[in-house]
Amino acid sequence: MEISVRLAAGLMLMSGLVFAACDSSGSSDSGDSTQNIPRFAYAANYDDDTISCYTVDAGTGRLRHNGYVEAGTNPRSVCADPWGRFLYAPNRNSGDISVYTIDQATGRLTAGTAADAGEGPVSIAIDGAGKFAYVTNSVYHNITVYAIDPDSGQLTEQFPSAPAKSTPYCIALDPFGKFAYAGNIGTNNISVYSIDRNTGLLTPGEAVASGAYPVSVCVHPNGRFLYSANADSDNISVYRIDRSTGALTESLPRVVTGDTPYSVAIDPSGRFLYTANANSDNVSAYVINQETGVLAEVLPRAETGDTPYSVTADPSGRFVYSSNRGSCTVSAFEINQETGGLAPAGTITGRNGPLALAMVAGEKAVRHIPTFLYVTVTDDDSILVYSVDDTNGSLATATAISLEYAPRSLHVDPSGRFAYVPEEGSPAVHVYEIDGADGSLTERYDIATSYDPQAFAIDPSGMIACMTHEVGISRVGINSVSGYLTGWREYTITGSDYLTDCEIDPSGRFAYVTQMVSTNIHVYAIDPGSWGELTAQTAATATGGDPVSIAVDPSGRFAYSANSAGLDVSVFTIDQATGELTADDSVVLGGTARSVIVHPSGGFAYVMYESSSLPVYAIDQDTGTLAAGPVLTTPSVPEYTVIDPSGRFLYMANRDSSVIRTYAINADTGALAASSTVDTATTNAKKLTISWTIK
Predict the structure, then answer these.
(1) What are the distances in angstroms from CA 347 to CA 63, 314, 551?
(2) Which string of b and e fits 92-110 if b means at least 16 CB within 10 Å?
(3) Is the pTM of this model over 0.70?
(4) What does the pLDDT look like over 374-418, one tens digit per residue?
(5) Closest Cα to residue 455, out of 411, 489, 507?
(6) Could you tell me which of 608, 632, 630, 600 has the C-alpha nearest to residue 617?
């Protein structure tokens, strides 16, 4: 078959990419089956050597950025152990397997020692007991077995490895831990193995023919059927499994798919099967005959982003996800529980080249919990700390922290461990450690900078910060243990006296800097490796002129600039390959625009401008455009606002007012309802910052 130009570069036989399903079901003793609520998702990003982390909204299926970590060179697949303690990613071109410990409360990853995997590891499966990992090696034509350390998750190779046919690129285990199956794209067949449950070692059986280029295989939850996605023949092979020997018998004819099926997955109930069709940019859905394993397609096919390389069913059986390499996105779909058909449930940016997705479940849905509200006060050189009541959003009496300098703003790193405070009128940034019990701050470092800090932003990984100043923008690395800032790199921006804001997109790939007078919004691509470089992209122009601030929506697809000269807000679409902005629309206000904040759901935007009101706009999820909604009348002009990470409360400091107001947010309309107030004893409150935790 002829493969499209956009895929051809990635489908070279010995250096190409195919999906490897993570089969973590492999045994009947795999843990508590009631722990099926999706909590976290992880994407292997082949094109920038990282793993993206997401939290999962168990009710809607939507993903939310939760940082990223570095991997080896070209991570091709990703897999978690059955209890969500450890995560593994085979790296195709560095010949190793990245090993991570998963924080089961927050979902964040801590890297362990990578395991050697020879040349060309591409897929991984873990048995249901969490004892062994199986990795296909596309160059050595074998399957390597690793024992998993139950305490650290580290991998120890078991000998001997099992021979495969030519170029094994995918592997799946049966749900009872007895058999393993590998798809060999070089010989167009499926290798069959028996598993020694004591040692994990594999004994080869008789291989069987498949369609052309069997890039993904999966076993039905009942252990009776196996399915192979055949990318070059655009079909699925269906096999019966002999429960005594593991032998395969193909049921003909093969089932037609979309163009270039690159991945196959079954929902946990075993009723439905899905394929990601890389060249037709869609997902096919099928109903599985429970007696014969035969498939009946459900139409229409669900449209994805560009070049979906994988499809993943979530542990609850409610949602399906496609990882779209071409558009650098992950698409979510809700499963119709009657028909198996898919309905769009939201799209989020990935990093560069998301190829595979692994999900981790638990007993409770993820919650983003606000912990402390910080208020910087310039005139009396202090920071006010309020604890936040998670039930109603109210603020407890403040603790005042006196400083020896005027704080320009305060920024909390994603871990909630450190706070960064640029000093106003002086070239310095102060680093504080946050007490998790009461939110109090202990200064650890007073870091001199080359220039007076203006805007400051921390990327979602907590590894990088960007800072604007009178010459341009600096990028700096953050020590994850101490919080120290190091490795400063400076980039000049012409006419930089009017750099007003800096924002890093939720994926951590791009930085945006607003520049008044020139009306420019400068765009930079961020290199994730070793506190690397900022690469200037094509700058955008604010439609109304004089952009004073910029906000990126949580999905990372749209950006909004508040333009003081044009009395409006510009709406931009973000190019997922370059980060560059394309102006799509604008919203005219009744006064000078000052800032935009976007709700954590991505459903609403709130605009502050020179008026005693705060308008709410609904965000179109396809285009990012803004539609006018409810307007809150305020006591005076809103100076600073912030939304808590749960999306339930908004906090506001008004001009010439000593009160901070709490508003409850209507989840359906975004409308605000006054809830409570606290008195700050000052009318000079500046930036409001919320810290949070994940439970």
Answers:
(1) 8, 15, 18
(2) bbbbbbbbbbbeeebbbbe
(3) yes
(4) 999 988 899 999 999 999 999 998 889 999 999 999 999 999 999
(5) 411
(6) 630
